[in-house]
Amino acid sequence: MAWWEEIGLGIKVERAADALAIDASPGEPFFTVTGLIRLTGLLGYCTVAVGGANTCQFTLDPDAAGAAVTVLDANLDITASTEGDIISIAGDPGTNLMAGHVCVQQMLPVAPRGVILEAGVIGFIATAALGTFRWVLYYKPVDDGATVTVI
User: How many CA atoms lie within 13 A of 89 on its CB side?
Assistant: First the structure.
């Protein structure tokens, strides 16, 4: 990566707006990670209000043999999310998914240099089929040829 690519958030990958689905661990597959990456941002933009209890969480289901599913954040009930709200991860598996009302949210405040992820599948756990979100992920490859793609 050239020096100027290190200044920004990295490569942007977008997942089109889609209704949330009920899914337990390891979660509904959202993104495939091939190779070691540095996750620099992961956010969801609410396009249809949640309107009811819906506890959510991101996970990484690693490709490595025998590796366990890893949570990327502590779960959070996003009941109050309305159109225009933004949710994001903090960068610490013990910190709740962050929900910001209407247009303002931090990305990875606990891990400002990013979170290193192994190859695998980033999934989204939801306890209810309520709400619609558009997802944006930013990353920088650590391994040559490492990528993130939408599932």
Answer: 28
Give the pLDDT score at 51: 92
Write the DSSP symbol of residue 29.
E
Query: What does the pLDDT read at residue 17?
Result: 98
At CA 147, angle to CA 86 and CA 132, rounded to 5? 25
Report yes or no on 10 lying in a domain: no
The one-letter code for the residue type at 55 is T
CA nearest to 31, candidates 141, 145, 128, 120: 120
Q: How many domains does the chain have?
A: 1
In a domain, 2, yes or no: no
- Please report, to the nearest 10 degrees, the dihedral formed by the alpha carbons of residues 26, 107, 3, 144 taken in order: 0
What is the percent of the chain where pLDDT is above 70?
A: 95
- Token pair recorded at residue 123: 């999934």
Q: Which domain holds residue 43?
A: 15-150
Coil/strand/helix, residue 146: coil
| CB-neighbour burial class of residue 151 (10 A; exposed 0-12, middle 13-18, buried 19+) | exposed
Residue type, 15: R
Task: Say how many Å lie between the first and final Cα of the chain, rounded.
Answer: 25
